[in-house]
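User:
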Amino acid sequence: MDTEENRRRLTKVKVVSLLVAVLVIAGLFVVLTVLEKRSDSQALEEDSSPSVEETSEDETAYEDRRGVVYYNGQAYYEKENLETLLILGTDKFDETSYFVGTVNNQQADFIMLVVIDHDTNEITPLQLNRDTMTEIEIIGVTGSGAGSFTGQLALAHTYGSGGSDSCINTKKAVSNLLYGVDIDHYLAMTMDAVALINDAIGGVTVTVPYDMTNIDSSFVEGEEITLTGELALKYVRTRQDVADGTNLARLERQRQYMQAFYDTLIEKISEDSSLFTTIYYQVADYLTTDCTVPKLTEFFDLLAEYGMGDFVTTEGENILGEEYYEFYVDEEALMELVLEIFYEPAEDE
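Assistant: Predicted structure:
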């Protein structure tokens, strides 16, 4: 009996000793890691200018405060003076409204990342396909991450209350899709507000690209029509039973509409300097954003000052999945697009 108790005591001592040793080693590792990071940080502060170190014949390593990536043997720095705004057009995927746990019924049907380059005074609107298959974080009942899954980009917004948490989740998904680029701000607007904004500038004139008379009798192919009220919403929102029924056709119409909207907006701004205030207070109840009113006013002013570049979008393949269409980006083309918008080639010194 005594022998058995002694063995148990010896075993407990060994286990405790092992745990203590593990904790000591872990503590030493943390201390060394912190010291190493502090050392690196001090070295960087002492010499903030980029340094070059040859590592191979085709690749050069750059140390700089900006992020750096390598692609096809070329180093690229993050552009220093970019500002980004993620714009979402949210819609319900059925007629009922509900919120259960951490899932709501609002998805992001329209997704566009506006990239403002304050060095070149250029604004690039990057439109993303809502059917893009990408990694989406699942929000748990406590509001924290509870794993992830691969699904349509639009579904990222369904995780959360439909408010700021859903916007932040979508922002994460878009950032991951674009290889980790920073996204500064978000603005989500329910699609119901389209008619209000459209009418605030007196309507938007477009040429109907193909027959859409099954949606509205005025949508005759080749006809020039001024969209007002609910017609504007129908034009940018409808997907089923139009053209090939895919989101690609709708994306083209949305780009056409947005370009026409922008042209009309700039014209109206020159006539009415208070136009932003008028638009904002008409749609404020339909917005969810992390921007203050002064910040939104600043974006609005930059739109008029810098002008807006051509709309760009991602290349890829659209296929019919088990139930819905799925869009798979061309990874090589996407990388080149991200480098073009968010990075600049590093020059050898």
